[in-house]
Amino acid sequence: MHVQDIFQSSETTFSFEFFPPRSPEAVESLYQTIRELEPYQPHFVSVTYGAGGATRELTHDLVVRIKETTSLDPVPHLTCVCHKEHEITEILDRYARAGVSNILSLGGDPPKELAYRKEDDDFRHAADLVRFIKSFNGSGSHPDRRGFGIGVAGFPEGHPGTPNRLLELDYLKRKVDAGADYIVTQLFFDNRDFFDFRDRCELAAITVPIIAGIMPITSIGGMKRMAELAAGARFPARLLRSLQRCHDDPESVARVGVHYASEQCHDLLEHKVRGIHFYTLNRSDATRRIFESLGLKQARATTIQAA
Known about the structure:
By secondary structure, this protein is an alpha/beta fold. It has helices spanning 3-9, 24-37, 56-69, 85-98, 126-137, 165-178, 191-203, 220-229, 237-244, 250-270, 285-293, 299-306; strands at 13-18, 44-47, 74-79, 102-106, 149-154, 182-187, 210-214, 275-279. It is 47% helix and 14% strand. The protein is globular and about 55 Å long.
């Protein structure tokens, strides 16, 4: 379903994110996660893309498999880094033929293992990629006359590469003005950051739906990796105190993490969030427990009925 139709039919969307597994064992583990989460009927599931397109084929294969073997609606990530226009065109053609409805357009992380020069890319910024996908949409190559629905990233705590917060909003508005239909935010742990970000978007005349990215903490090691990957995620003192009281007990840490994320989601729903996107890390338990705490057995059925 095109993302415009999703937002038109649903007051609040719920979605999950997966990453392509790299081993047969990880593939089976992910599909067990997908089987466990599919009954919750998320509005869509996104599939990540490795640095420099390193998991390009894995991403494509996973997207098509989800599309063909489940009731889930996959949204592949697509990045600027290490790509030429003809490569992006080929990828879009493949997704269009597979009936994929939406794309998440990102700047992307440069590959660490390769010599990389940004000036070699045909797309310098995410807005350039959005503009190119929008042009592809106009070619009539997609079975939906509107072409792909296009999502972009937002950063409630600030983009790590753009310390100037005023300039950061200018860049986000360029992505939206280039044709983005919605925004998915980076993970955050203080809802005040999200609400402030949403207000600043409104002041900047950014009116597309903004989906909040939530990642429950399930281990101390995972939290540290999360901080590294998110390039500076802020952990409120209240959360850190609760985790300290766990004394590194894994079950206690997971309970605190799920409880904290559930409180975040309850508060977001109270403040009319347009959508919640769960970074699952290819596991289902924490997301399922949060859904149950919210009283959400089937996301699509619940929100469409309420619309």
